[in-house]
């Protein structure tokens, strides 16, 4: 099962978006995460769950997990760089904030 070059991304997901990062689970070889960015009035990083479709021989996005918004492209890329090191607890807190932080994700940068 190959990874990065073996993802079937629907055209509508790629419209006005760019692939920023892919992660593949070391524990569950059939799961991964795809990060797509887009620029609107801010920089948005969409994270999707990937699942390996054995009949097609490709990973496919099956669910959007979360979308994170950043004021600058630099902030978004700092978050992407730190993403592999974020603990599960920190990710849960980021995905379910009780109030928006003053500086988005400043504790991760």
Provide key terms for this protein.
single chain; 109 residues; 4-stranded antiparallel beta sheet; 3 helices
Please give a quick description of this structure.
The protein is an alpha+beta fold.
Layout of secondary structure:
Elements: H1 11-14, E1 18-24, E2 31-39, E3 43-53, E4 58-70, H2 73-82, H3 88-95
Antiparallel strand pairs: 1-2, 2-3, 3-4
- How many beta-strand segments? 4
Provide the helix percentage.
Answer: 10-25%
Characterize the main sheet.
Answer: 4 strands, antiparallel
Q: What is the quaternary state of this protein?
A: single chain
Distance between the termini: 34 Å
Strand order in the largest sheet: 1-2-3-4
In DSSP terms (H or I, runs of 4 or more residues), the helix count works out at 3
* Global outline: globular
How much beta, percentage-wise? 35-45%
Mean pLDDT: 86
CA radius of gyration is: 14 Å
- Name the poorly predicted regions: none
Note the run of SSEs as H and E: HEEEEHH
Structural class: alpha+beta
What does this 3D model show about the protein?
The protein is of the alpha+beta class and 109 residues long. It has helices at 11-14, 73-82, 88-95, and strands at residues 18-24, 31-39, 43-53, 58-70. A four-stranded antiparallel sheet has the order 1-2-3-4. The model has no long low-confidence stretch (mean pLDDT 86).
